[in-house]
Amino acid sequence: MAPLCLILLYLSLVGAEFYYEKSLKQEQVAEAQLAQVRQQMFRLQHIVSDAMAVQDTDRIAQEVSLAATDLELMVLVLVDPASNIRYANHLVWQGSRASQVIDGYEPARHEQTVAGQKPWVQVNPDRLSIQAYYPVSHSGVPRYSEINLIYLEYDLSGAYSRSISELQQRFLQIWGGGAVLILMFLTVFHYVGVRPLRSLLRLARLKQAEPLAQTVPMASSEVAKLQQYMYQTELKLKRTLKQLRDSEQRWLFAVEGSQTGIWDWQISIGELFLSDRWKEMLGYGPTELKNEYSSWESHLHPDDKARVLERLQSYLKGESDVYESRHRLKHRQGHYIWVLDRGMVVEWEEDGRPARVIGSQRDVSEDVRNQQAIAHQANHDSLTNLANRRAVMDALFEFQQAGPGSMLRLGALLLIDLDNFKLVNDALGHHHGDRLLIQAAARLSGFFSGNALVARLGGDEFAIMVLDLATDNEQAAHQAMQLGAELKQQIARSFQLSDQQINVTASVGVCLFDNHHPVEPAQLLKHADMAMYAAKDGGRNGCALYSDELEDKATENLWLQNELRHAIEREQLSLVFQPIFNHDGELVCCEALCRWHHPERGAISPAQFIPVAEDSGLIIGIGQWVLLEVCRTLKAMADKGTPMPAVAVNISARHFNQSDFVERLLALLKAHQVSPEQIELELTEYALLSNLNAISERMQRLRSAGFSIAIDDFGTGYSSLSYLQSLPLSRLKLDAAFVGRIGTEAGNAIVRAIVEMAHSLMLKVVAEGVETEAQQAYLSSLDCDFFQGYLLGKPMPAASLVALRSGEQPTSTHYLG
């Protein structure tokens, strides 16, 4: 077959080359003749035009006769506009219509050529000829002006035949020479290549000892090397077979001494060999189990049986590459052990079906227990053994996979945070804090009998996922809020830690969800967290339900926080000063108030941005800026000769509790040459919740330096009389909320009690938010020391405050009190 294929390939290549050169040769002949025809026609066109101009008809006839001597010229005629032949290379055509006697002539082409006065020349492959239409220009002579076209058709068949004959003669010479060379090559190849290879194949089939060592006659160097390689491969194969037999013996010895059991299943006869170690795993002796397939199948765990058999059949059908299964087998003593089973087909039937499978089995019970323990730890909190955040996320995701096609199910996610848990840790230590968390977890998990997932997210945050609430959103919300109230009561019960009782409260955030409107689990947790913080903002120990307004509020707070970070450097903050008057109507001091003017939002209320600054920690930077601006203002006004009264500055708890607060404040006043007597520090009661000793020591240093210290918004925080007695305070600022209730029996009683209590402690009282004359009159009757409010004076720039102090602005009795 090889010589035949080679010859056919050679003939195909030569034939393709012949037809390619034939086509190329015809194109060359046509181009050459086409150029010659153009030249002749151009010459004839001018001769006819000139002859017609001088009325020389003999010259036209001579030129036509001369052109007719070319044997390849098929047609040469001069026609008038009516297609009548005036002159022709065949006299019989003269006087006839060209369309009737000439096959290739086209009247439409005649008219188109004359109209455009542009020659048309083209090779006609169907007629094997060149056709040309040349217009004849004339001077308008009546007799001869009727000739307006020269039509020519030139025969190419003769030139084609000559070129093809030459090509055929050349290719016959090439074919002949090539065929001789190929036959010579095939002959040499047969004796040098084919015959030695056949001899080598015959030797390889012989079963006598080392037949490949014999010499192959007339073998080429390549064949000789191939024989040498085959001989070396044969020797290597024999060594490998010996090593394989040795390895089999070592393997059998190793298996017997290992903890792996061996099984050998003859599928066709149903016989199953089980090694002694295999039987020992299940507590049986070497002869206590029959060598049958049923001995294995009957010991499979009922929950694993279908899966294991399906996997085995899938492997035997060739649907999977390997058989490997981890399942449980029943021990002789009644319990189940985990085993790792592997197997592979080693023999096949003639029809391709598996005939024999060999496999191994290993006891992996300890590995499974370890993995289960790791999986439990991955989804449970190590301290309380409740589910963790990951378990909650997985449960939420699984619940929402049912999708819109299933029955509507409503659920609620409740996020519980213990209020002020940090105080328990700080006061009693983290050990007792952990014990409180464990007891709280036990209460929460014990409260639910089922259909709920109780989890600890971290710190003092717990989450409860409750399913299958009422199918109505309003009813489901009511049930969830009622459940949140009950959970608050569970937390509010006293906790017993060693020999003392601890009471804590909880803030609960509630978020509803359903399986028809999937929401990302992380987003649901975020919603519940927003609701929980809304409950804390409402005074703690509360329960709040998530709504879109909370999302808008969170977005607004995030925007405020981002913009507030750059408010100082962009010079968007400013200070105004609200005057404080004494009982006699004298301006004795003022309170510095921070204002924020945003270039896009305009004026932003302190009630909006101060809480955001507190939560984000930006309040420290803002507080430092306020102290700096107050010092600059005091210094600038003093330099102008218009000194300001003492300025009260609100200090946040975060700012005041900084370890270097006193040092930085003294350095700031010294740098601007401001006396401490000109500054009064106003602290909220929340600032007193941390280490009282440290707070007292810090206040003593400030009082020693000359600062005055006041408690701002008194009555709304967490202070007690013991705090007031032990701290070096100078004033109490009565919160505007109490002043606003003056006129009611309860409001009057509270205000009277606070004023009398402060005076008994030798403290001055400043009433905030005085907006009516009735409020001022009642406070005056109680001998309240100072007044602050819109009735007396609104916040104003420093220059206006100085002018008010100097009496430049008109005042009235009701304005100054």
TrEMBL record:
The answer to keyword Transmembrane applying to this record is: yes
Which key words are in the record? Membrane, Transmembrane, Transmembrane helix
Instruction: Tell me which InterPro entries the record gives.
Output: Biofilm_reg_signaling, EAL_dom, EAL_sf, GGDEF_dom, Nucleotide_cyclase, PAC, PAS, PAS-assoc_C
- Residues in domain PAS? 272-319
Query: Where does the chain cross the membrane?
Result: 172-192
Q: What is this protein called?
A: EAL domain-containing protein
Q: Does the keyword Cytoplasm apply?
A: no
Q: Where is the GGDEF domain?
A: 409-548
Which Pfam families is this protein grouped with? EAL, GGDEF, PAS_3
Q: Which residues form the PAC domain?
A: 323-376
SMART domains per the UniProt record, alphabetical: EAL, GGDEF, PAC, PAS
Task: Please name the Gene3D superfamilies in this protein's record.
Answer: 3.30.70.270, EAL domain, PAS domain
Domain named EAL: residues:
557-809
Which domain of life, per UniProt? Bacteria
